[in-house]
Amino acid sequence: VGRTPLIAGNWKMNLTREQAIALASAIAATPPSGSDVALFPPAIWLTDTAAAVAGSPIKIGAQNCWSAQKGAFTGELSPAMIAEIAPLVLIGHSERRLILGESDELIRAKIDAALAAGLEVVFCVGETLETRQAGNAESHVANQVHAALDGRAVEDFDRITVAYEPVWAIGTGVAATPADAQEMSASIRTELAAIDAAYADRVRILYGGSVNAANAAELLAQPDVDGGLVGGASLVAADFLGILGAVSPGI
Ligand code: PEP
Q1: Measured from the CB, is residue 229 less than 6 Å from ligand 1?
Q2: Pairing mode, if any, of strands 36-40 and 205-208?
Q3: Closest residue (by CA) to atom 6 of ligand 1?
Q4: The pTM of the whole model exceeds 0.90
Q5: Per-residue pLDDT of the chain (251 residues; tens, 9 = 90+)
Q6: Residues 6 or more apart from 32 whose CB is under 8 A from it?
Q7: Is the CB of 10 under 6 A from ligand 1?
Q8: Which atom of ligand 1 is nearest to the CA of 210?
């Protein structure tokens, strides 16, 4: 199928400025082989982190953006402003959906604004434990996918990566089994095929939720899992580089 793996680190609201620069520099010093690499630092360190990885193939992104490019939105992040510093943005992370109350409608509007600003989007979906136990994981995630992506222009699709992140696996130390990650990724790809078959074939679908150096290789070996979105294990250079090493034997 030929999809290049993407390993992305979501630093969330962690690291001092000095720590962020040191971590980005350490990762940039070990050029990835065979995988694309992205880092999502706290927005206030985007400029410093971008400088630290300059000249390396590592891409930087913001963890969130607003749905307008400018205006009276105190405290929000403009996609156009992000685009001056970084090429990527994460949209729809479960912490924003669940803690900040972001709706599918707002998330769709944010994707619209990010694409209009020229950003590439890593779009997150995933079900809670309650939804999974009720047997509704696939339909819930399918709804999230369709709410965000239905009706988009074909040329926009190549700037959207999907990350499947079951909420029950995030930060818990309990990753999905490779079989569950594969089943959900395949289900997402089937939903995407209903929107645009060619996009579904080439889109990268990442798995996120307690990925570490020990489980990354098996998760990413699944045919429909094309990379990882990594939280906790992206905060320590050795751990993140361990994941890169596990999935890219060239390192
Ligand atoms: C995340 O929040 O995107 C994530 C996957 O976190 P963790 O790796 O810590 O589970």
Answers
A1: yes
A2: unpaired
A3: 231
A4: yes
A5: 689 999 999 999 999 999 999 999 999 999 778 899 999 999 999 999 999 999 999 999 999 999 999 999 999 999 999 999 999 999 999 999 999 999 999 999 999 999 999 999 999 999 999 999 999 999 999 999 999 999 999 999 999 999 999 999 999 999 999 999 999 999 999 999 999 999 999 999 999 999 999 999 999 999 999 999 999 999 999 999 999 999 875 54
A6: 7, 57, 58, 244, 248, 251
A7: yes
A8: 10
